Amino acid sequence: MSINKEIKKVTTNTLQKMKAAGEKITMLTAYDFSFAKIIDGAGIDVILVGDSASNVMAGHETTLPITLEQMIYHAQSVIRGIDRCLVVVDMPFGSYQSNSDIALASAIRIMKETGGHSVKMEGGEEAVDAIRRIVSAGIPVMGHLGLTPQSIYKFGTYTVRAKEEDEANKLRKDAKLLQQAGCFAIVLEKIPALLAKQVSESLTIPTIGIGAGGNCDGQVLVMHDMLGINTEFKPRFLRQYLNIHQQATDAVQQYIKDVKRKDFPNDTEQY
Ligand code: KIV
Fold first, then answer.
1. What is the second-level CATH architecture of the domain 3-240?
2. pTM of the predicted structure, to 2 decimals
3. Is 187 left (phi over 0), alpha (psi -120 to 50) or beta?
């Protein structure tokens, strides 16, 4: 039997055991109560309350505008919907980069006000001091390397990262530093599959890939992309499992038709 099915509550220790046993870790984003309930009920290992809420919930072009207060609101809603999975809450841009005091205060707010189980932070060497402080306070931290969307204006493009040897070497080094700083897992976003494999094999903590190939210890997708709620974003790494956009459009059009032709509500749909 898989470790996944045996356990009542997924913890950071569960993920460690899954890596050791070669069992893949599943992670999806969620931002609200109702979808968190569906995703947790379906048996996911980890829900990420991603700062991608800035894009898919608020309609911003980047993840930069979302605030700590808004992330706390989303995480509170998710926590009310789950029973079993581990919940990771993204620390938004501006809530941890200035210094480690501010980072620790932001992480404490997330844990205290949301009931979330851990936080995620983007960056390598430059984030290590803050990660150490947060881990020392007893808060589990997930790292995030590769295409880190909070740095999009530094990169200037959403293309694959670490294709050149210099950047690949920095990523290898950063992954080790994050592990040493106490991260319990690391997201690897949009990097070559071979590099992700090497990094995953070199670490004792699990890697969770998005656009980083099949040899990461787990996979993550943005819920709106994989359910086809958002149909404009079609990167090569995405597998779309539903087309909710189309199904919802059809349903709304049918409702409009039914009301206009006085079919809804019928005799059984009223008091
Ligand atoms: O915010 C997010 O959805 C993420 C994933 C893409 C890993 O960080």
1. Alpha-Beta Barrel (3.20)
2. 0.97
3. beta
